[in-house]
Amino acid sequence: MPNSLMYQEENYVVLEPNKPEQLMTGLEILEKLRLILAQQQHDLPRDLQKLSSLDAQAQQLRDTYCEYELSNGNFIQWYVVRLEK
Question: Is the pLDDT reported for residue 48 higher than 90?
Answer without folding.
Answer: yes
